[in-house]
Amino acid sequence: MFTGIALSEDAREKVLRELKPFRKAGTPIHWTDERNIHLTLKFIGEIDDAQVPEVAAALLAHSPATAPFRLSLRGFGKFPAGDELHVFWAGVEECPPLHALYSSVEDALAPLGIARETRPFHPHLTLGRNRARYNFKGLFARLAECEGRFLAEWTVSAFQLFASRLTASGPIHTILKEISLAQS
Predict the structure, then answer these.
(1) Which residues are the active-site residues?
(2) Which fold would CATH assign to domain 2-180?
């Protein structure tokens, strides 16, 4: 399970359009299914089905005071630095309301024994993963060209509690609960 922000359809289409040249490059990257593209707020991990209502209730009860906000995606990148590529991502512009939402989710889930993240929050959309050794020099050059390219923007008015089921053809993400942001 995890909490995240689903993209608007318009934002998803724009990201996919800009991603197309990378996907056609013939690399060993395993691309995220377009229906699964999202921004992860908090990875929860495996929990019993009986705990799902408790997690949803905690998120609702600790409903964030964050009002709906605009979220912008800009540029593509990769983890880690250097000549390797493990994760291919789309960048999220700095957004204080997004960080406030992240903090409120952490605060809501900590009393349930869901450990707080120890690493800093670096919001991004994971678009692909790679485990193979490969010369990505051409792809890296294209990444440099697209570094600051505007990708999409939309108003975030809710976040979601997702279930992720692993299948032979990849994960399937399902929205279990949508939690609206405070309306001003």
Answers:
(1) 38, 124
(2) Cyclic Phosphodiesterase; Chain: A, (3.90.1140)
